[in-house]
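On clarity, I found the account of how folds are encoded harder to follow than it need be. Since the whole study asks how a given chain folds, the encoding of that fold should be made plain. For illustration, here is how one protein appears when written out as sequence plus structure tokens:

:::
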Amino acid sequence: MTDVALASTGIVDDPDTPALVAALDVVGITAHPVAWADAAVDWASFDATVIRSTWDYPMAHEAFLAWARRVPNLINPADVVAWNSDKRYLADLAAVGVPTIPTTYAATGRDAAIPDGPVVVKPTVAGGSRGAARFGAGDLEGARAHVDAISALGVEAMVQPLVASVEADGELDVVVFEGTVSHAVVKHAPIGLEATAEPTGPVSVTTVDPDAAQRAVVADALAAVPFEATLCYARVDLVALPTGPAVIEVELIEPFLFLSVHEAAADRFARAIARRVAR
């Protein structure tokens, strides 16, 4: 029997875990949910470790990256984890022509480029909505003050326009296993609900089939990820801009994969993990 660790916070239950554990068992893999920060764990005793619900890593960013570098047979690998853990990766995608939500970065409020209209200011290293704040059109003082507050925590800030289509139409989350789209959902948060650092709150999802334009952006985004030609798992989050679909995030570390909304999703993920372990 093959043993695989599912790295987690050790506190918050991942809704994907039961389905994944059962699917891994079918392909001959015993899954062991383990807290990534547990110093007593012998990671070398597992045939591989899959990062699943390490939603607390932004609060211990450097320790998490050091852990990722120590773990043998990490899925996804440590260099990808380091790149994806800082949302400045959006600039890397934009630099090679991948459509992304317009984003600027600033270390001080004085230097921040604040676009016209409502904006969102958030840390470049964060999970969910931690540290994120919305500011209305013209509230330059508030937005700049929040950039300074983020900077005081030792993290750079990012500024993005508030995308109106997200509130009206939701966000498209596309799940990809080994380069192939598995399934996708449109995600809606109830009016007034702030997203949390863990995807376990009251969020409404509807299964959808991405169209050709959306699939093309997903493929381009993943092709632009450095270090690894084909990732075991990924979630690419898209929003609708007037120019077409654009990437708001590429989740390669601990994304909620909506395994329960598609009957074959957990099986696909388990087979992808099994192929990685067998290499």
